[in-house]
Structures are given as structure tokens and as C-alpha cells.
Amino acid sequence: MSLTDAPRPAAVPARGECPVLHGAGPGRTNADEVARLRAHGPAPQVELPGGVIARVVLSHRLTQLLSSSPHVSRNWKASGPADDNKVTVPWYWAWTVEPAGSNALNSDGDKHRRLRAPLVVALARKRVDAMEPVIKEIVRAALEDLADGPSTVDLVPAFALRVPHQVVIRLLGMPAELLPDFRASAAGLFDTEATNEQMVRSMQGIRDVLAELVTLRREHPGGDDLVSDLIREADAGENPLTDIELRDQLLLVITAGIETTVHAIGTLLVDLLTHPEALHLVLHRKVAVADAVEESLRRNSAAAAVPMRYMVEDFTDPVTGLTLHRGERVILHLAAAGTDPEVHEDPGTFDITRATSRQHLAFGHGPHFCPGAALARLEIATAVGEFIRRFPATRLTDSPLQPVESFIVTGYGSIPVQLAR
Ligand code: HEM
Predict the structure, then answer these.
(1) Of 102, 144, 284, 341, which is most buried with the most CB atoms under 10 A?
(2) Residue 257 CB–ligand 1 contact under 6 Å
């Protein structure tokens, strides 16, 4: 049986009967797709790539409500169609299914709390403060290399990806001997053209590196790295995490921490390069770069829509009367929530002085709220703040910007610019 003909709850249409959620593509952004879907109500049924049917929640209010509702689960076992537990599911939601490993993102309740708790401690303020000088050092080294290189450059590999990639390597305290294997597998993990088989191979490669790292830190605990912190925290609980569980939480940190941050940095750079008045306000310290970060995340949430959730019970929205049925797959569209016209006036406009900029769900809401949010905010603000001061007169080249072809993340695959001081 394939995914598309797995048993479906009542009222779920067949393939071809509802609008599609395929994400950005040639000539189409995630925002364009959201605008088209809004005509179908606050939570229409959509067809995902591969012909899979799911509900996509577009309203900020409903996303908030469902994010922390016991009616909704992140774990397919709670009520998902049986076939969702195959590694052959399109890789874009491999995170939900058990063969990809048990992690905080794909679990609920007590299991989720147990897996998440050490991560929350390991990524807490103390860690973020300790990373501040490291992030500055990484950003400044990247800017030095930009200054020494050609003036026309693609900012995605040279800057927006380089920063979070190196931050994660330093955060994990990755020793030099594991770096080549880590780099090779991590590159495969973020290859949006990858087939399922390639993705499974890259995941296995990175899992092997992380397993080695956990073993190494068990034998030789480091003083100041996230893996040693995580092991300490995990062991301190009543029900310590196994080494395999630790490895899988680290894999989650890597994917959740790089693929999102690269796009948040890239999008804010483009926002400022295309809005000279906003750039002027930030450069002249009339508006803090942190405010520009929030407005950019609101308008183009880097984690646009993270699959997959499942309805555990029927749920009727008290405001609209809309019912979501037990067994339905649900996607909370965080990018759509950020541009909900019920919350934001003129939501498509980039306005860093907007009073509602911080009312977004770019880091999620409820029990799965991103534990790396403070670190991510610091990374984005440092990277973009230092870039615009170093190269304030930079211009985008004439090549049209291509959005990443995905409904899960919003960002640019490349950002060609002419650097200028
Ligand atoms: C701009 C950057 C980032 C964005 C937009 C982002 C967004 C998100 C969102 C929306 C979720 C919740 C998904 C859901 O509710 O289903 C999440 C979860 C998570 N994020 Fe982030 N994230 C970012 C950076 C980071 C960083 C830097 C780290 C760690 C170094 C991180 C680690 C995690 C982890 C471990 C989870 C799972 C939490 C759980 O399920 O309990 N994220 N992130």
C-alpha cells in the first residue's frame, strides 16, 4: 500500500480534489502560495508533493491553539496512517517517523519532556552568552574572507550558510578528526535535490559521526561544549537518555539549527538590501538590528511549515466551527501565521518599525517551541549587523533571486551581490 491510498479518515478528499501545497518554485514564493490558499479558509485540505493529503492551518490564532492542544500529536503512532512510519515517506517529513530516530520534535507528552529537557538546559542563556564571542569571531572571519575575495559573490555559501554551520561545529565541540566526515554528511543533509535514498545515506553518515562524538565525550568529557552538557543533563534525570537517544537529539540540533538559520540570515540580508530606508535606520542605530530580525522572521518565517502533525481526536474550532477529524495529517503554516491579516496590517510590507513585528510564530509555540531561539536570534543579529556595517553599500546583482523550492523553509538558494563599503 502506498502513502496515498493508506486508509483515510472520513471527509478527506482524494488526490487531485484540493489545492496543492508545494511551496516556492520557479516564479512563485511561499507567500504567493499562502495568499492563494487563504481563499480556501483558515485550514484547507491540501495536496502535498507526492499526492499526500493534509490540512494546512493558515490562521495565527488556530496555529497557536493547535500547537499546544492535546488533540494534536507530533507522533504518527498517536493516530497517523500506518504508512507514515516508513522511511520511504518523502524525506521532507522524515523527522516525524520512528525509523528516523526518536527525537524531541517527533514525540509527545512524557517522552517529549524527557528528550527535550536536557536540550533546553544545554541551550539556555548561559550557553548563548558563552557563544557570543565565538559567533562574533566566526562572523568576523567570514567578513575578512569576503573582503579578501572577489567583489561579486554569492552570500549563501560564503556567509549565510558558513556562519550557522561553523556555529554548530563549535557548539558541539566537534574534534578535528571527525570534521571531514561531518562536513561531507552535513552537505548531503541540506541538499534539497537529494533523493530519499541519498538522504537516508547522509543521515546514516551523520549519525555515525555523532555516535562517535557521544562515545568520545563520555570517555573524555569536555568542559565547554553542548555534547558534554547534554550528557551531564541527560544523566542527571531520573530516566537517563541512552547514547542512541543522545545521538538523535544531536542530529535534531544540527538540522534544526542550520537549515533554518541560513535562511533567516539570507532573508534579512535581502530585506535590508532591497529596503534602503530600513537599512538606513539600522545603520544609523535608529532601529535595533534585533527589531529588523523579528520583522524579517515575521514576514518570511524561515521554518515555514514543519511537517507533520496528526489529529488524535476530532476538534471543532470554537470561532469558525471548522472541524478537524481524528487521523488527519496537519501542517501548521508558521509563515502564513506571520502574515495573517487578522494580526498584522498590510502584512506583506517589510516595516522594521511595525508594532506587531514580534507577534509571529517563527520559532513555534507551545511544548515544541524552539529551544535554540535565543541562539538563533543572536546569530542572525550578529551576522547581519556586522555585515551591513562592513559592507554598507552592497547591492544585489541583476540576477533574479531564486527562492528555495520548498514549502518547509523560506529562503534563497543563492544571493549574488556586489560587495561595497
Ligand atoms: C532562525 C532559526 C531557527 C528557526 C526559525 C527555528 C524554528 C523552529 C521551530 C518553528 C520549531 C518548532 C517546530 C514545531 O513546533 O513543530 C523548532 C524546534 C526546534 N529547534 Fe529551532 N529554529 C531555529 C534555530 C534553531 C537552533 C539554532 C537550534 C539549536 C542549536 C534549534 C533547535 C531546535 C530543536 C532541538 C527543536 C525541537 C524542539 C522540540 O520539538 O521540543 N533551532 N525550531
Answers:
(1) 102
(2) yes
Buried (b) or exposed (e) across 301-327, using 16+ Cβ within 10 A? bbbbbbbbbbbbeebebeeeebebbeb
H or E element, residue 66: helix 60-67
Query: Sheet containing 416-418: which strands, arranged edge to edge?
Result: 152-154, 416-418, 395-396
Residue 11 CA, ligand 1 centroid: distance in Å: 32
Residue 57: CB within 6 Å of ligand 1?
no
Ligand 1 atom nearest residue 361's Cα? 10
Separation CA 150–CA 275 (nearest Å): 24
Which residue's entry shows cell 517529549? Answer: 112
Q: Grid coordinates standing for 149? A: 575575495
Residues in the chain: 421
Q: Which of 370, 378, 379, 382 to mutate to test the pocket of ligand 1 (most atoms within 8 A of CB)?
A: 370
User: 392 CA to middle of ligand 1, Å?
Assistant: 30
State the distance from the centre of ligand 1 to the C-alpha of 150, rounded, in angstroms: 34
Encode pLDDT of 234-257 as tens digits: 888 788 899 999 999 999 999 899
The secondary structure element, H or E, covering residue 53 is strand 53-57
Answer yes or no: is the C-beta of 375 below 6 A from any ligand 1 atom.
Answer: yes
Nearest ligand 1 atom to alpha carbon 365: 15
Those residues with Cβ within 8 angstroms of residue 347's Cβ, 6 or more apart along the chain or in another chain = 299, 338, 339, 340, 341
Tell whether pTM > 0.85. yes
User: How does pLDDT run across 265-318, given as a tens digit for each residue?
Assistant: 999 999 999 999 999 999 999 999 999 999 999 999 999 999 889 999 999 999
- Enumerate domains of the chain plus CATH numbers: 3-418 (1.10.630.10)
Angstrom distance (rounded) from CA 329 to CA 43? 12
Q: Rg of the Cα trace of the chain?
A: 21
Contacts of 114 (CB under 8 A, 6+ apart): 237, 239, 241
Per residue in 84-125, pLDDT (tens digit) is 665 455 666 666 666 567 899 989 999 999 999 999 999 999
363 lines ligand 1 (CB under 6 A): yes
371 Cβ below 6 A of ligand 1: yes
